[in-house]
Fold:
Amino acid sequence: MKRVLLLFCSLFFLYSCGDDNSTPKEETTDDQPSQPVITTIKTFDNVKVAFGEDLSQSAEGTFNFPANLDDVKTIKMYIKDICPNKECDEWDRYANVYAKDKTTGEWYELGRFINPYWVGNEKLERGYEIDVTDFKSILSGSTELKIYTETWNAKGRKYSVEFDFEKGIPDYKYSAVVPVIQYNKSSIDGVPYGKEYDTNKFDLTRTVSIPSIAEIAYFRTIISGWGHALPGTCAEWCVKTHTININNSNTFQHKLEGLGCSKNPINNQSPGNWKPDRAGWCPGMVVPVRFNNIQKSMFGTAFNFEYEFEDWTDNGTNKDGAFYALSTFVVVKSNSPINKATISN
Structure:
């Protein structure tokens, strides 16, 4: 019996104490996910845009982003629209943020939003959130930014903008982005809708060439309508479906319909008319991005692109007219070094 006890004790000692002097490692489970590693870059800080003498509807600045983005998985932009005590422009104004391409000097629209009536977006902890990972190739090092609002009074709007760079493995190692078309300086600088317009000034056709080494490519489009032209009070209130035609074939559809404006968390826009649905946007919300994947069979070839509006005729009774502010980019990605897509008229 003593021998059995001695053997048992010996085995117990061996397995419980042993000769492993390493520090125990904490086990990770799905219930204990690791926290993301995020670098936050603050850019515009309480900057004012307004209309009037010595005022400007836009503000520009140069900011330092991380120089090496190889280990960055996502980039998020947060926009605080600051309006305490109803001191801001009370109307639902068109607004957007741009970054300048260091190579061409062209401004790229990162995101678009519409101001709420009377108030800011303080109800949102960090303001409007927009995923701008597609613009990773231009958001590195010293970068010029611009924020714009189509305000027409001296009260204007004040903004603070910051970016979160989250570390991690990106979906593809390399990416590049280039505009296909941009008619987005303001709502009324958009493409006139429902009547003939100067096709040289508003050319909605392009030739696009995707690099053959691309592993994925897609269009990234933002579109919002403005105006109360009849019939249908277009383009702000009328539901229309527009298309991207590839080689003269209707390939992608963009239906501009209600987004559920009455469910907006910025629900204190009294006395503004914020609850009714607009055509593809809401006061106090980000204008949605529309994504369309390009077939791999198109890679390495040149194809025709056309943005086409649904047929509708302005009857001319409202002189303000109807407009669509439009931007479409093409994003290409690969695990091998890749150049931008080529765009030509």
User: Anything to note?
Assistant: DSSP finds one helix and 21 strands in the chain. The radius of gyration is 26 Å. The CA atoms of residues 65 and 139 lie 7 Å apart. Confidence is low (pLDDT under 50) at residues 1-29.
